[in-house]
Amino acid sequence: MLDKNMDNTRENESELTEIKPIKSELKSELLNEITIDDEKSNIEDFLNEVENDEENRTVTSEDFSELSIEELLISLKNLIENNPVQKIKTPIDQIKNAFNQKFGVLLLDKKQAFLDEGGKLLDFQFSSTIKTDYNKLLSDYKIKRDAYYNHIESQLSENLEKRFQVIESLKSLIDEAEVSTMYKNFKEIQSKWNSIGAVPKTKYNDTWKIYQHHVERFYDLLSLSNDFRDADFKKNLEEKLKIIEKVEALANEKDINFATKQLQDLHKIWKEDIGPVSKDLREDIWQKFSEATKKIHDKRHNYFKEIHSKYDDIIEKKLLIISEINAFDTSKNSTHNDWQKSIDDLEVLRKKYFDIGKLPYVKSEEIWLKFKNATKKFNAAKNRFYKEEKSNQQENLEKKLALIEFAESIKDTEDWEMATNTFKKIQSDWKKIGHVPRKFSDDIWKRFKAACNHYFNRFHQQKNSVSKEQQSVVEKKNEYLETLKAKKKFTKDEVLNAINTWQELGRLPRDSRYLDGKFSKFIDATLDNLSLDKNEVNIWKFTNLIDSYLTEKDIKKLDNEQMFVRKKIDEITREIQQLENNLSFFSISNKNNPLVLNVHKKVNEFKDELVIWKEKLNYIKKQDF
Q1: Residues 6+ apart with CB under 8 A from 214
Q2: 89, 226, 549, 616: which could join 56 in a potential S-S bond, CB 3.0 to 4.6 Å?
Q3: To the nearest 10°, the Cα dihedral for 339, 340, 345, 347?
Q4: Which of 147-151, 317-321, 529-533 has the lowest mean pLDDT?
């Protein structure tokens, strides 16, 4: 409203020349807020590069390599129970690495002891309660971590909505406020904006730019009161000089990650909490801030350059191990002992490979693929030997053990679609495999059944879980169906009312939709007992079926039903055409012939049936699905 009044009352050029330069200055300030300089990337981009690293490094790491397996389990438990879940990723990874290495060594020792006592490799089995407890702790950690980040995501969305509300308040202030009160009201809006927490990264720039656009509009109007504007410029200058001093001090900070995190916070204050300064100081102030920021950026760049050089060294060492595995000669292996020695030798190389160190995912993927291909070559030769050495039952045992291991490895996954299809295939493959040695039969079946039951119990629990509201629908429909069954007789209107009431009670959850089937059968039986025309009953049953599909939103069944009705219409039409064509061969004098009369009767019956099917098709076509 205020803008419109200004447009209507501007009568001289002086007002226009006063407002336009200020608007230009603020646009320049906005550009400075977004860009560091022409050569460097956006401040926000490079500051956000380590946001996740900083968050996860809050808990101080320690050396877990000297701890025993039992001590590692205790450390893992204490870490998860006594620290915020978002701050323990690094020590968790270190414990996992140490535990897996030590448990691998323990497994090898147990296997070797078993073989030294005369046991066969395929007979070896080892289970550990410590490993079970370890897996349970990691599962608990993942659940807590996922819950935390789901909460964060929800909070970000709430903050985004709050920021949109503040923007609307600012727009209303510009359009409707009086000059005497708008500055005070603007400060209240600005304070509310600054008090709102973070928003999703993908929305941050857009919301900030929209807000700054309306701040610019406000300062255009604020130019009507230079005292307010100048006081604001002065206060903003003091705050920005303080920030520059803090950034310059951070350039001497030894901990580059701490310095970057602090700079990120200061940049946010500069960008969001402090407004523009006067035009004659703006470029100088921004240049000082940019130069101080660049020092920290360059220091961090050199820090990560050094880290990347370490990655190159790790890659080089891993490639040497892969070359050794590729050159591994198994051509002279002719006995089980020969292969056992080769397996042990290869395990030494595998351990060296993992002990060299970890790489970031983007760098490790190609190396890992080469490593897998190298070991695959060895495993292929080994498997060929044992397939030739062992009887059919021993081959079947190996296949079933492989299925068991695979089933156990995915039984706790949450990729339901992949796992369900995989478990079905595993079960199918299991049935196709023949008998195994009797002494293994019960044990491997119990393991396999336990893995399958574990997954499908989780799957059905997840799939069949219903909300309180859905459970209420189930209970109401159960009660209503029992009430209908208790009633002896129904009229046509009562049946129609029962169908409408059933639909109004709500949609059943997937695992309770059998109630819809019971209700449909009850309605069909009730209709059969009414003194209604056969065709009318037919239509009623059909509409009841279609309505149940619509309630379930089962588009596939609706499409199938429509295709079936169209097919029946086509079949009956062809029958009528064929019979009428046959009638053309009879002369008029034969019209009382019993055969002719029978054909006429069939034609009329088909036509009556065609009317019913077309009515069904029209009913389906009227539905919106």
Answers
A1: 167, 170, 171, 174
A2: 89
A3: 110
A4: 529-533
How far, in Å, CA of 122 to CA of 134, rounded? 26
403, 429 Cβ separation under 8 angstroms: yes
Angle formed by the axes of helices 129-176 and 201-222, nearest 10°: 20
Q: Is the pLDDT of residue 20 over 60?
A: no
Orientation of helix 392-410 relative to helix 416-432, angle to 10°: 170
Neighbours of 83 (CB within 10 A): 14
Assigned token pair, 468: 């309180």
Q: Which residue has the higher pLDDT, 61 or 156?
A: 156
pTM metric for this prediction: 0.33
Of 356, 353, 359, the C-alpha closest to 321 is 353
**Out of 191-195, 300-304, 384-388, 426-430, which region has the weakest mean confidence (pLDDT)?**
384-388
Pairwise pLDDT comparison (592 vs 487), residue with the higher score: 487
pLDDT at residue 224, rounded to an integer? 52
Tell me the residue type at 456.
F
Q: Domain ranges for the chain, please list them.
A: 2-56+156-287, 69-147, 306-464, 466-553, 555-625
Separation CA 204–CA 373 (nearest Å): 44
Contact criterion met (CB below 8 Å) for 328 and 346: yes
Q: List C-alpha distances in Å: 391 to 185, 388, 395, 397, 448.
A: 88, 8, 6, 10, 22
Token pair belonging to 27:
């646009």
73 vs 357: CA distance, rounded Å: 22
In 3D, which of 501, 529, 502, 527 has the Cα closest to residue 515? 502
What would the two tokens of residue 3 be?
Answer: 């803008």
Decide: 67 and 134 in contact? Cβ < 8 Å.
no
Beta carbons within 8 Å of 68's beta carbon, 6+ residues apart: 102
